[in-house]
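Consider this today:
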Amino acid sequence: MTGEPQTRPKTRIKNTGDDVYLLLRYVRTYLRVIWQGPQVQGLRQIFLQNYWVDEQARVQWREPDEAGLPPSSTAIVSPYDLTARYSRRNDTRWKGVLAHVTETCDDETVNIITDVTTTPATLYDIRALPAIHDRLAQRDLLPDEHLVDGGYTSIVQQDQATRGHGITLVGPVRKKRTRQSRKGNVFDRDAFAIDWERQQVVCPQGKPSREWSTPLSITPYVRVRFAKEDCGPCPVKSSCTRGDRRQLNFLPQQLYERQAAARAAQQTTPWKANYAMRAGIESTVNEFVNGHGMRQARYRSQTKTHVQHVLTAIAVNIERVNAELTTPTTERRPRTPTSLQNFLDRQRIPRPTAWRTPGKS
């Protein structure tokens, strides 16, 4: 076969964004009545979060390095539920919302769920705690002690819970994570003496600080800087800082002392025995998930999903009260140990530091 070689015409692959873009333009131009409708505006938000239009009016996919992508707190992950968000905790990933469960944990009475709070999946646990306390206060169900995990705990939150509601917030305080605290051959914050009255800090070599300030921040803190003239010729500078001078950041005096006391207390056996009771909430979460399928939302929107969470909590409470009334016992039996607790028992780890019923074998 002879003749000129034939070449295929170049074509551009059309993506779904082109059709959506044309549809939105048409609705905005000719159907102004439905333009502000929730379905059209939802489609518009999804389009803007996934596509962008260049100078030649061409629809392009959004890439992280080019047009950028929205954060998880605002990114729509489902066209059926615009309030659902993508989140992850360690190896767990999901799209939807997040439920926070609060229950009583007294040994003498049946454990009752007192509150279920439904929040966006991307909301930090520590930011959900004030709303939980407010809801408990409205129903006159505030506890004297509230046992929470590390995600709900901070020194500022403990102080606010005590001053606002008279609650003792019990939870592990985060350890120091500075470079100096991770390495044993450098001076960490505890090596410096703080004089609160004179607003001055003295380094291990006896040099006083030159600057003391309290910058504007959501969490109050104090910033201290030493002079370059003191840090430059210091013989132990390599064990103190990698910059031209040392800088320290720490909490104000009241919070600083509370933080030191909390870190010391959580190393003691009584604190561990008391905090071990928090492990009981893991059984409740397991009951919600495996017994009532709470990880599968039966409704759309955060508001309706919250109704499902509340109804599930009511069902669990009815089951527990019914079991208490139908099978009364002279001595309350502890909860069935979880798989993790059985593993700890096989490793001969004493229960007073790992289980919710300290002192019982």
Q: What stands out?
A: Residues 82 and 172 are 35 Å apart (CA to CA). Residues 8-13, 353-361 have pLDDT under 50 and may be disordered. DSSP finds twelve helices and twelve strands in the chain.
